[in-house]
Amino acid sequence: MPRRRVITGRSQEPRRRYAEEIRLLRNERGFSLRQLSEEVGWDPSLFGKLESGATLGSPEVAQALDHYYETPGLLLALWELAVSDPTQFKEQYRRYMILESEAASLWQYSVSIVPGLLQTDAYAREVLALGGWKGKDLERQVEARTGRRKLLEGCEDVPPFRALLAEAVLRTPLQDRQAWREQLEFLAEVGERKHIKLQVMPQSAGLGGLVNTDVMFLRLLDGVTVAYTENSHRGELIEESASVEPLLLAYDAMRDAAMNLDASRAFILRLLEEVPCEPST
Length: 281
Hints:
Transcriptional regulator; about 280 residues; alpha/beta; DNA binding; DUF5753; Lambda_DNA-bd_dom_sf
């Protein structure tokens, strides 16, 4: 049986310790990141980010490295420690943002508000203000949130994005009528982009498997899918495949019950016609 590595003296911070061990194992073999990629099968950039601590990756990657280096269960155990470390909870959203920027494709279901990637400045400002942000801090938050739209802009290397919106999202207007018109117009416009698929989940479809759950699925470059669930109080990054799979199955069932792309756009345009125009001055 392969001897487990002695890691006494390594960093005691779980995330850093995991990164150190992955780097040391590779260096002992004398491999470059590209050589390791050829041996194990994932993109070399992923291993670079694992070794720098920029990402924890998935448990499947940890298991594959354990198998390759003949360190049964060691890296997976370190991965589990890093993920469950209480200090990581505050960083989950930051980690999610990193993964979002690197995702090969994205699928979202929103039950409550327009997703952040599809929010206009005015929509983001009102939502964030309701959360207690004010003044310069509010404007910084608005800039950060709407800056994420760049992920879906451009002609090349733009990840496919599917947004499934509950009908209630589109029937809950902003206080400013003109700002709400602009938000609906923006949704109608982005729904025509070839890499974006926007569908509406009608109320008549009833409750679904993701009731009361806003969720974003990210398919990463290593082929693993992670999920980020969110409510008004907290968010959770879910990386274990066994926990992500039921959410994906529920999403697929709800997508099948949603309006098709053309009907969804027509529905948004009908709502747009119902918004009163601002009186001329």
